[in-house]
Amino acid sequence: MTGEAETPIPQLADIHLPEPVPGFPWAPGWWLVLALSIAIVALAAWWLHQRAQRNRYRQQAAGELNKIDQARSDQHFASAVNQLLRRAALQASGTNAAALTGESWHQYLCQSGGKTPPLDRATFDQWQAVAYGADAKLDRDALLNFAKQWLKYHREPTEKNQRFATTNRRPG
Fold first, then answer.
1. Count of domains in the chain?
2. I want to staple 104 with a disulfide (CB 3.0 to 4.6 A). Which of 60, 64, 100, 141 is the partner?
3. Of 87, 74, 70, nearest to 123 (Cα)?
4. Which domain holds residue 163?
5. Residue-wise pLDDT tens for the chain (172 aa)?
6. What residues form the membrane-spanning segments (predicted)?
């Protein structure tokens, strides 16, 4: 043996790293997750668009209600609010709810109002009397608050409300 032992370190080869794992193409599971995510986003966008289209009349009616509030005479104010709520009812339900009168119109407004507190009968009677030309005192604030709440919260009528719409029509 020679006095100097040869060390094998200089003869060692460098470490060879494996090829990096490619990020693409993905496994089939990731394609499925991507497709489901796109479908969910598309459905959510479509639903939000449809909801905005369905509720556009509410925004237009609320804007018109603010203009009506500037009416000077109680008779014009009461008549305009009456017409506005009837148009909104017609737009919402597609039935002839706008043709209801008297007690059936009052019941329809109260039952289809959603979270809206019902309009008491005395205020309703005053409103209708002034709207059709009677010289009576009108609580504009109560009527305006009811109309705003009803426009915001009303829902399509139930089967019970539709019975009023079909059985209690105006004569003529």
1. 1
2. 100
3. 74
4. 56-167
5. 455 677 888 888 888 899 888 888 888 999 999 999 999 999 999 999 999 988 898 899 999 998 988 878 889 999 999 999 999 988 887 777 778 888 988 988 888 888 888 888 888 999 999 888 878 788 889 999 999 999 998 887 566 544 444 444 444 3
6. 29-48
